[in-house]
Design goal:
- There is one protein chain.
- This protein is an all-alpha fold.
- About 60% of the residues lie in helices and about 0% in strands.
- It has one domain.
- The protein contains 4 helices and no strands.
- The longest helix is centred in the first third of the chain and has 11 residues.
């Protein structure tokens, strides 16, 4: 699943209606949230991890 789809699903699950509400509640900037939701490769992994943590997800890497 793409990260943007996961974020949108998590927002719905938490009752967050839009990006501005997510910005206010998470403390992450609108620009960064937009990059993450749009699957922009320039989004920093630390920001992705912070957003996922806020939404109740854990970023995990596994060896193939």
């Amino acid at each position: 699943m793409e990260i943007g789809k996961l974020i949108r699903k998590a927002m719905i699950d938490k009752g967050i209606s839009g990006k501005m509400e997510l910005v206010e509640k998470s403390g992450i900037s609108y620009a960064i949230i937009t990059k993450i939701i749009n699957n922009d490769d320039s989004a920093k992994l630390s920001a992705v991890n912070k957003l996922l943590d806020f939404l109740g997800y854990k970023l995990k890497a596994e060896v193939k």
